[in-house]
Design a protein that fits this description.
Layout: H1 8-15, E1 18-22, H2 28-38, E2 41-43, H3 51-57, E3 60-64, H4 70-85, E4 90-93, H5 101-113, E5 118-122, H6 123-131, H7 152-166, E6 169-173, E7 177-180, E8 185-188, H8 201-213, H9 225-249, H10 254-267, H11 270-276, E9 279-280
Parallel strand pairs: 1-2, 1-3, 3-4, 4-5, 5-6
Antiparallel strand pairs: 6-7, 7-8, 8-9
Helix pairs in contact: 2-8, 2-10, 3-4, 6-7, 8-9, 9-10
């Protein structure tokens, strides 16, 4: 598969975009280290008195609803409005949407109030926002919500509708990742089941996506959020595959895999992504 934009990893490591992450305390350290390993720079600030100043210096913003409270929602709104006023990309992770009313309403509030560039969640979360469905699991996609041949069209339709309503690129992650902007759709089949055995891999993808979105324009043309979201999903999934290959060689388990995942994102190249990305639908127009 030839990506419309080339050498994004090389550019990321050269430009070192600063990504402001308002994320959850469970995964904040891993998110910061994953960004550093990839070649970007993280800043983790959530105090309402400083988020506007911090995001002004960053190239992209991540809003992750993982460990949520009202003060954090307020900080997200402040940071998001400042990012929007400066034309900076915003990645929203509606963690647990559909699993509890407070976070579901907070996600809707942010989507309605901010021009999110990408909304990234598991199938349960995206379906909850698109269709108003409820999942007691929320944070972790239930088996019934995995993207499969049986429900593929329903997932594509729901994600595309949410994309059109929110004007954001939707990234629905699972065994297969689905990326859509409401007009174009791409399925990314990279990844490994072990990625679900450690916490934070979704949060890491949020940050990596934001880093790619924060790269400078090229030849006077702004980057395409859909294309860059697909690239981020392919890179992240491929790193999971590379990490598992090394882990299996060493007869390791979840702890070894986590370490190898950081190794993989620090060493993976654009050539490996071009050769290893498994995409379906490519970048063709799928609007009906």
């Amino acid at each position: 598969m030839i990506f419309p934009e080339e050498n994004l990893l090389e550019r990321l490591r050269r430009e070192r975009p600063l990504v402001h992450c308002i994320t959850n305390y469970v995964t904040a350290g891993d998110v910061a280290n994953y960004l550093l390993a990839a070649g970007a720079s993280p800043v983790m600030a959530e105090e309402p008195k400083e988020v506007e100043e911090v995001v002004s210096a960053a190239q992209a913003l991540v809003l992750n609803l993982g460990t949520l409270h009202e003060g954090k929602v307020s900080a997200m709104e402040l940071a998001g409005r400042r990012a929007a006023s400066l034309g900076k990309p915003i990645v929203l992770d509606p963690v647990g949407a559909g699993g509890a009313s407070f976070r579901t309403e907070a996600a809707k509030r942010l989507i309605e109030g901010l021009p999110c560039t990408v909304i990234r969640g598991n199938a349960s979360e995206i379906l909850a926002l698109a269709q108003g469905t409820h999942s007691v699991r929320g944070v972790d996609a239930g088996e019934q919500d995995e993207i499969s041949g049986a429900n593929l069209e329903a997932c594509v339709k729901a994600a595309a509708n949410l994309a059109r309503v929110s004007k954001a690129v939707i990234v629905m992650t699972g065994k297969t990742d689905l990326v859509t902007d409401g007009r174009r759709t791409c399925r990314v089949r990279n990844g490994h089941p072990m990625m679900k055995r450690i916490t934070g891999t979704g949060c890491m993808l949020d940050a990596l996506t934001a880093a790619f979105l924060g790269l400078s324009s090229r030849e006077g043309r702004p980057g395409d959020p859909f294309e860059r979201a697909v690239y981020a999903a392919a890179v992240h999934g491929l790193c999971g595959e590379l990490a598992w290959a090394r882990t299996a060689e060493e007869n390791g388990g979840a702890g070894a895999f986590r370490m190898r995942l950081f190794d993989a994102v620090s060493m993976v190249t654009d050539r490996q992504v071009l050769e290893g990305a498994r995409l379906e639908d490519g970048f063709r127009d799928t609007e009906s």
